[in-house]
Design a protein that fits this description.
The complex is a heterodimer. By secondary structure, chain A is mainly β. In chain A, 0% of the residues lie in helices and 53% in strands. In chain A, strands 2, 4, 5, 6, 9, 10 and 11 form a seven-stranded mixed sheet that branches. Chain A is globular and about 40 Å long. By secondary structure, chain B is an all-beta fold. In chain B, strand 7 and strand 8 form a beta hairpin. Classes of the chains: A mainly beta, B mainly beta. The interface between A and B is medium-sized, with 22 and 26 residues.
Chain lengths: 119, 106
């Protein structure tokens, strides 16, 4: 059964950095592009970033461009999100999700890791 | 950026009733989906390509629409359908979600 397990969340001060991880299992990780999607407490879903299966292509939401970096290690079946210059508005539950179909839909999701940016 | 506007914000209906959720895009979209999110859970893909049910999704869920106007229909509401429903589109390399519609069971 496809499994995505996020880790690395926590409480961090504004301006500091944090790196999230997402461990994938039970599917051919290298065959799929992967996303990060976040959800602020009590709010809706916001797409954050995508990385192609071969690590060549990355795209970001304007809200995180220049501060966040998505990466992956296909030898470890792991997705990452390096978050720098964190702001209070980055506080959210961060999900990793698998990209599926030519439409780029999110067919599998992890349970999320909570990032709280607060002084 | 394409903005998705969902209506209504909240629905309260009785089991067995027909439910119709709407999502309108600010411009025409090519790839469109619906997701269901229950409290404390990750979202689940319900409908993709506007009208195709994802694997394991009950037949009471159906999607329709194209261009800028899309609809999710639950033909006969079940108690376990209490959730927030999000529409989502992808255009080129940008994904956006609607703000969600909360479906409550009376």
């Amino acid at each position: 059964q496809v499994q995505l397990v996020e880790s690395g969340g926590g409480v961090v001060q504004p301006g500091r950095s944090l790196r999230l991880s997402c461990a994938a299992s039970a599917f051919t990780f290298i065959g799929y592009s992967m996303h990060w999607v976040r959800q602020a407490p009590g709010k809706g879903l916001e797409w954050v970033a995508i990385i192609s299966y071969d690590e060549v292509t990355t795209y970001y939401a304007d809200s995180v461009k220049g501060r966040f970096t998505i990466s992956r290690d296909n030898s470890r079946n792991t997705l990452y999100l390096q978050m720098n210059s964190l702001r209070a508005e980055d506080t959210a539950l961060y999900y990793c999700a698998r990209d599926w179909s030519s439409g780029g839909y999110f067919d599998y999701w992890g349970q999320g890791t909570l990032v709280t940016v607060s002084s | 950026e394409i903005v998705l506007t969902q209506s209504p914000a909240t629905l309260s209906l009785s089991p067995g009733e027909r439910v119709t959720l709407s999502c309108r895009a600010s411009q025409s979209v090519s790839y469109f989906a619906w997701y269901q999110q229950k409290p404390g859970q990750a979202p689940r893909l319900l409908i993709y390509d506007a009208s195709n049910r994802a694997t394991g999704i009950p037949a009471r869920f159906s999607g329709s629409g194209s261009g800028t106007d899309f609809t999710l229909t639950i033909s006969s509401l079940e108690p376990e359908d209490s959730a927030v429903y999000y529409c989502q589109q992808r255009t080129k390399w940008l994904w956006t979600f609607g703000q969600g519609t909360k479906v409550e069971i009376k």
